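FAQ
Q: What does a multi-component entry look like?
A: The components come first, one per line:
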Amino acid sequence: DAGVIQSPRHEVTEMGQEVTLRCKPISGHDYLFWYRQTMMRGLELLIYFNNNVPIDDSGMPEDRFSAKMPNASFSTLKIQPSEPRDSAVYFCASSPRDGSTDTQYFGPGTRLTVL
Amino acid sequence: AQSVAQPEDQVNVAEGNPLTVKCTYSVSGNPYLFWYVQYPNRGLQFLLKYITGDNLVKGSYGFEAEFNKSQTSFHLKKPSALVSDSALYFCAVRDSEGSYIPTFGRGTSLIVHP
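Then the predicted structure of the entire assembly, as tokens:
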């Protein structure tokens, strides 16, 4: 298995532009998570999905952020419009349905820089 | 409610010496505890977990962690540190009576000096 795949790996954009981050979870995993990592705040959970349905988006910082999961193999995190304070590394992770394991498998991350 | 604390932002240790990275937690029910490691420019990787059973849990790369219920701790340990162990380590906890989703600590940077 290729693991969790994220694209792009690096994104540099200007303030006000729309940014879309993409994630392909591990096949068969029912849970998908989006995290943001910064030096100031550490690792923050933004939103998570179960069977493609958003369950908790209380971590989404504001309305400029939105996430979708149109099918079991694809999710997007969109920022519109982007701001310099959105600069961070964004991770996608997936987890199997088996509740006894709870291990999360993280992708390599997308490093976002908003100028 | 579930929470986890990693009281040290950074731990320094000499190569060959034992290392400990500390983690304490708070839950309402029983804790499910995890350690993850993040190498530079990489995503987090699972190291080990405690769900039930033996208090000493062995994981990847020679790491182990000891669950201590009375002290609500789950410290990560390794008998002999390697320079290649230098990374960011995250502790996470999930409450058996709460959300499916674990809460991660802020991370501890481990630096192993040659």
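Q: Is there any commentary attached?
A: Sometimes. For this entry: The mean pLDDT of chain A is 92.
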